[in-house]
Amino acid sequence: MKRGQEITPVLARQIEESGVKSVRIRSILTCEAPEGVCAVCYGRNLATGRKSYLGDSVGIIAAQSIGEPGTQLTMRTFHIGGTASIFTRQPEYQAPGDGVVKYDPHLEYIDLGKGKFRVLKSGASISLMESPGEKGREIARYKIEVGSELLVADGAKVKNGQTLVRWDPHSRPILNTVPGKVQYSDIIEGETMKVQRAGNRIERIIEPMTGHDLHPQIMIVDPKNPERILDPLMIPSGAIVEVKDGELIERGTRIARTTRELTKTADITGGLPRVAELFEARRPKDSAVIASISGDVGFGQRKRGKLTLLVTDPKTKRTEEHLIPLGTHIIVHDGERVEKGQKLTDGPVILQEMLDVTGMERLQEYLINEVQKVYSLQGVKINDKHIEMIVKQMVGKVQVTDPGVTDLLYDEQVDRKTFLKENERIKALGLSKTAKSKNLLLGITKASLATESFISAASFQETTRILTDAASSGKFDPLKGFKENVIMGHLIPAGDGLPALKKQKLKVLAASEEVPALTE
Predict the structure, then answer these.
(1) Which domains are assigned to the chain?
(2) Can you tell me the mean pLDDT for 110-117?
(3) How many CA atoms lie within 13 A of 235 on its CB side?
């Protein structure tokens, strides 16, 4: 396979059969064409199934491909028929092929005997390798949750379809990592804990924290010295406590458990506003708190009526503090390993925050996946390239943080390509003080208003302001886009109207002859 070669269905099948798990491909998001997108990065025209050509209006095709299913969702009628909006996750991982199991060095577990192991902390993973040793190619990798049961040992050879990991789909356990004595802290019956009978069992449930300044925790202390805390465990509201105060426990005992939904149901009426929220890059209500660095989770004291969640990098010992409002559902546990940008609490992510923390690539991936989730729940299939076209427009601007010796201004919002072009001009002059910028995420409305064409922007919103700004700054509109040419009464720059194609001259292939008159 050569670089730049089109991956046809036949070639895709060959790649799959060869066992290659990933191939680096060209994408609209990474296309460096000075205007629009190049045909190689775009791929085939899905309307014809053939190669896309110069002048294809792929942006309009993208908007229609996303908008048309959107109108179906609004009308609650589905041209292709809807599917049940419920999805389940199988509570096990199976080997996709023959290989050798390799544990992550950070994986903490206890031996249960009979070749079974229990995982004590989330965040680590196990891999399936083609062959033993460091040089073996990785076939698959699975992130392992706390309480999962490993059914194969590190270095064990497994067969295709063999179960590697299993977990309880109904609950998520909280386990202790050291043996010791249980000591309740701020767990008071009638205040922070209610006791109720469930069949033949008595359940101790942690109440939601409202008003009172209590912090339910279970401390694992040294039996000989109760003042020495070995493992402090934060117990979230709604958790069911499974150990008694003063009880002696072994490492890996289930201290408490939180219930999780077996199935998630998504209503498309909630989904459609979600698409608008993503494309407009709005700040969502009850947003999630995300980890600003990778590291281990810990809990600190309350500050200003909020819970302090700490993430500590084990290598650099750097600690980042996150303030969590009381009553927020925390989805990580004490001691859990989290990655930069991972959600610490329930809720949608603030997109600009995700961009600042994780960078452009992760944000683009997140946006595409979130939009696809809404449509796929109703059985609507949209090719990724259409969503990529919209996302590319949303992240097409940068904000200048240091203009250097360029003609750019501090805090100015400019097109990414204009910014790079200006820096290249400075480098060509032999100057080293280039401009610096930070990535911007604009909603589709703001992106339309920030377009290079002031005629196009004025036809959309805030006409007076845009035309006043354009006149006062002496702007020039090159009329490269669709809308501005329609407004000016010109041929649209697509298909035969593309300037590059209009310049082409017709070649006379044969001598001109008079067409004979038609006779009856």
Answers:
(1) 1-53 (no CATH), 91-168 (2.40.50.100), 173-259 (2.40.50.100), 392-502 (1.10.150.390)
(2) 87
(3) 31
